[in-house]
Amino acid sequence: MRKPIIAANWKMYKNNQEALDFVNKFKPLISRNDQVETVICAPFTLLATVGESIKDSHIALGAQNMYPSLEGAYTGEISPKMLLDLGVKYVILGHSERREILGETDQFIRQKVDLALETGLTPILCVGETLEERQQGKTQTKVSQQLWSALEGILASQAQKLVIAYEPIWAIGTGKNASPEDAEETCAFIRNCLSEIFNGEVAQNIRIQYGGSVKPGNIKEIMAQPNIDGALVGGASLDPESFAQIVNFKE
Ligand code: PGA
Q1: What residue owns the CA closest to ligand 1's atom 7?
Q2: In sequence order, which residues have a C-beta less than 8 Å from that of residue 37 and are 6 or more positions away?
Q3: Fewer Cβ atoms within 10 A, N terminus or C terminus of the chain?
Q4: 150 touches 125 (CB < 8 A)
Q5: Atom 1 of ligand 1, residue of closest alpha carbon
Q6: Atom of ligand 1 nearest to the CA of 236
Q7: Which residues does a 6 A CB cutoff place in the pocket of ligand 1?
């Protein structure tokens, strides 16, 4: 049984006070819900504050990126060791905003996935197609290529804990989510790729999230899909009540 995992991606939003206010309001709203693994992926500057304020809860701490080296002369970068030092458990890797705006390549993302797993962080690996690719019927080709380049050769024993986030780029921040059926079709395809890259058993254990305009009004039908095990939530995760409604989708 795959435990649902719902993660907030705060992107480049909030200061320390706003983060504290969020956690203080959010914690009691989800305190009875231990059926969903809840993660807050905060900007680097808020990791210490959020980490401290979620200590007495079952919320896990996540980061939004890391550099693929333990330490070194990499001005402005953050290493997995530094994240672990702050209690970070999850790290978003290969988000489309980093691929597109910052020019991250599949090879670079692969290095990050390797080092994250080696150091004990759990990658939330993002994959997804552009609108143009979707219209040209290239969704599966794109997603499959992103998965193979990021994951081929990783030990099956390490792969079990991976989280994959399927995020169609045209659905991110646009208010236009993929239909639950379309999201399910691609997530089922992703699971199929995972069984080719690893094996069927590992593929059954890996959790696949959907991301792209998830909100309280659509989470239930998204989570009802058999191959969708959670969500990566941007805009709707910035407000404690809205994110709590998403996490408490079963109520
Ligand atoms: P959104 O962002 O929920 O605002 O569409 C999702 C994401 O980028 O992870």
Answers
A1: 234
A2: 3, 4, 5, 6, 58, 60, 230
A3: N
A4: yes
A5: 234
A6: 3
A7: 9, 167, 172-173, 211-214, 232-236
The residues pairing with 207 across neighbouring beta strands, listed in sequence order, are 163
Contact (CB, 8 A) for 148 and 118: no
Indicate the top mutation candidate among 96, 125, 172, 174 to test ligand 1's pocket, ranked by most ligand atoms within 8 A of CB. Answer: 172
- 8 Å CB contact between 76 and 49: no
Q: Hunting for tokens 């939004």 — which residue is that?
A: 64
Domains contained in the chain, number: 1
Per-residue pLDDT band at 107 (split at 50, 70, 90): very high
The string of pLDDT tens digits covering residues 177-227 is 899 999 999 999 999 999 999 999 999 999 999 999 999 999 999 999 999
Q: Which domain holds residue 22?
A: 5-247
**Ligand 1 mean position to 147 CA, how many Å?**
20
Q: Is the pTM of this model over 0.90?
A: yes
Instruction: Name the residue with tokens 């997995």.
Output: 80
Q: For the domain that residue 54 is a member of, what is the CATH number?
A: 3.20.20.70
The H or E element containing residue 38 is: strand 37-41
CA-to-CA separations, 44 to 17, 23, 165, 247, in angstroms, rounded? 15, 16, 20, 23
Active site residue 167: yes
Which atom belonging to ligand 1 lies closest to the Cα atom of 177? 5
Tens digits of per-residue pLDDT, 231-245? 999 999 999 999 999
Distance 221 CA to ligand 1 centre (A): 17
Q: Per the structure block, which two tokens stand in for 212? A: 């792209």
Look up 95 and say whether it is catalytic: yes
